[in-house]
Write a structure and sequence with these properties.
The protein is built from five helices and 14 strands. It has 193 residues and is an alpha+beta fold. It has a single domain, classed as tt1808, chain A. The mean pLDDT is 91.
C-alpha cells in the first residue's frame, strides 16, 4: 500500500522516521519537499569528484572532519530543539562536511554542517537558491556551495559575523578555495571532468 501524506500538513522529524517507503523527502519548516528520484550522470560525476577530493584532503591532513554524500539526513533545529518531535527541518544535501563529531549520530547530523554543497538539477535550482539558502543561513552553515553542472559554474557563499551570507563568489575556472580549511583549493577542472 502506497504511503499518502498531506502536503499541506506540518510534520516533525519523528513523523519523518515513520515513513517506510523508498521516496526521498526533505522537511522545511515541517512541510514536505519531495525530491527527484535519481540524479543525472553529470550530477553523480560532480558529486563523486567533490566528495573524493574533500575526503582525500581531510585524510591526508589527519583532520577530524567527515564528508557525507546524499542520502544523509541533516536535522537543522532552529531554536535549540533536540527532540525528534520538535525538529521540523530535515534535509539531504548532496555533500556536507561536519567538523564537530558531537553533531554526528547513527541517524545523520544534528546541527549545522560546516560546509554544504548542493549540485543543481533542472528541478532544484530555485529551491536550492531560495528556501535551502535561507535555511542554511539561519542554521549557521559556515560555507554553502551551489554547483551548476551543466553550465560548469560554482557560487560560494560564506557566512558573515552578522549571521548572513555574503553576496557569493562565482567560479568558472581556476581553483576554488574551500574556506573552512586553511590552504585548500579544488582545481576547477577536477570537479567537472
Amino acid at each position: 500500500m502506497e504511503l499518502v501524506l498531506d502536503l499541506e500538513k506540518r510534520y516533525s522529524y519523528a513523523d519523518y522516521l515513520t515513513w517506510a517507503d523508498e521516496k526521498v523527502r526533505e522537511l522545511l519548516n515541517g512541510f514536505i519537499k519531495t525530491m527527484s528520484p535519481a540524479p543525472s550522470t553529470i550530477h553523480q560525476r560532480v558529486s563523486i569528484n567533490l566528495t573524493t577530493d574533500l575526503h582525500r584532503f581531510i585524510k591526508k591532513n589527519k583532520g577530524k572532519c567527515k564528508v557525507f554524500a546524499a542520502p544523509f539526513d541533516v536535522r537543522l533545529p532552529q531554536n535549540g530543539e533536540k527532540e525528534d518531535g520538535q525538529i521540523n527541518n530535515v534535509v539531504q544535501p548532496d555533500i556536507c562536511v561536519v567538523c564537530d563529531p558531537s553533531k554526528i549520530d547513527k541517524r545523520g547530523c544534528l546541527g549545522a554542517p560546516d560546509l554544504v554543497i548542493e549540485i543543481q538539477s533542472l528541478s532544484t535550482a530555485k529551491y536550492d537558491l531560495t528556501e535551502k539558502f535561507n535555511l542554511y543561513e539561519a542554521s549557521g552553515v559556515r560555507e554553502y556551495w551551489v554547483v551548476f553542472p551543466y553550465e560548469e559554474g560554482i557560487i560560494v557563499f560564506l557566512l558573515q559575523p552578522d549571521g548572513k551570507y555574503d553576496k557569493g563568489t562565482k567560479y568558472e575556472s581556476g581553483k576554488v578555495p574551500v574556506h573552512i580549511f586553511d590552504n585548500y583549493e579544488i582545481d576547477f577542472n577536477d570537479i567537472f571532468c
